Each structure stands twice: as structure tokens, then as C-alpha cells.
Amino acid sequence: MDSLLGFLHFTPFSIRDLIDIAIVAYIMYRFLLLMRGTRGVQMTFGIVMLLLFYWVTLYYRLTAVQWLLSNVLTYIVFAIIVLYQNEIRRGLAGIGTTSIWGRHRRRANDGFEEIVLAATTLASKRIGALIVVERDIGLRNYVESGIALDAVLTYDLLVTIFSPNTPLHDGAVIVQNNRIIAAGCFLPLTLDPYLSKELGTRHRAAIGITEETDAVAIIVSEETSTISLVVGGKITRDLDGATLRASLQNIVENRASTRVSHLVDQRPETV
Known about the structure:
By secondary structure, the chain is an alpha+beta fold.
């Protein structure tokens, strides 16, 4: 405390220092927001504990343990890149689409009525479906894994694609600017170990794609004939047509957060 007071007493403090501290505080705040709700929280806690333990070894002069941790911490930068690759990718993508750079001009699709109608129809027939709506972050890599269509988004086409007798019904449909860009696409599966065992491959793929991008995913379960919505890696289940339409409309108007469970009449959320 005396050292801190001495530092503050003899070190001149200017507006530049205040701006510097504010920038660092904002960066830390954005980092914590990026980590919230991800596996990175546990990994960050582990790294912090490791650093605190290293400080304890320095304080008590535990030479052998200090030597071991010194060699381990040498590769901490590479470990951070490997462990936080999803968070880093999402953060950089967010920087590229932030309004500071004028990239938020493109809005999410507003032709959700066809998707809602198709989802409710498929649910009533117990036919599975996975529809991914592109927003600001492009999905070109996933589009190339499927069959290119570039067709107008219509209820009839969606129902036809997901019919069990068609060759494209197993994959995901990607929608961009009110057009079905591709069907039969392969998506990354989430690695969340705490995800409910009730969720199948479609749900895991929907969560995976929304964890890596800002896309919106709509899932129809063929086992339970229920409709689910995934935004930001968070899934809200057991939606009907009205709540699905309201949720999608709120997302379009940029009023929805990454969690939309408040639109489901207090029904429980399963993650």
C-alpha cells in the first residue's frame, strides 16, 4: 500500500493516462463479455490459478516448483491460442462487423414468415429440419459444403427440401437475404460437455454454428416434433409459431439478446 501511494504521489497523472486506463478497462470488459457463457471461463480460471501459484513459489522461493512452472509458462502464449481459438475467432469476427467500421449496414433477413410457416408444418408432420439464417458474419465456408441453390425463400421449397424422400433433407439449409443459398450443408458440432443428452445432431450443429458466427438457427425435431431457436450458442426449445415469429422479428430489429427465453412464457430453457 505504501508503494502504491508513493507511486501515485510521485507520478504525474494526466488526461492521457486516464484515457489509457479507460481503454484497458474497456478491453478487459469486452474480453469478459466474450468469455461469458463459454468454456473459456473455466480455462481462464485455471490459468489465473496457475499464475497465482507461480507467484506463491516466487514468494516462498520454491526453486524446484518455480523451475517447473517457468518452463511451462514459457509456452502459455501458444496454449492460449489453442485453448481460445473459438473465442479469438468470434472476437475478431465481431471486430470486423462492428458499427465502428460501418459494417452493420446489412440487416438480418426479414422474410421470416416463410420459415415460421415451414417450421410449424414440418413439426406437425414430425419431419426434422435445420435452417440457418446468415446475418453479418458470412457462412461461405459452410455453403460450399452443401449443394448450391440460390433460390427464393419460400415455404414450399423448404418443405420439399426437408421431405424424407429428398437427398438434401439430412443437411442444413442456409438462408441469405431472403434466398436459400444452399442445402445439405454440414455444420460444426458444439463441444459443450454440459449440453443435454436429449439433444441430437441437428441441435448440436445449430448450437455449433451459432457459437462460431452470429447466425440464427431454427431446428425442427423429428423425434419430439418441437421447434427450437438458437442464438449465440443458446437454445430455446418448445416454441410455437407465434413465439418463433416474435423472436425472429426482435432479432431483425436488433432488440433481442443472445438469450430469448423471456419470449417463451417462462418455459424452462434447456442448454
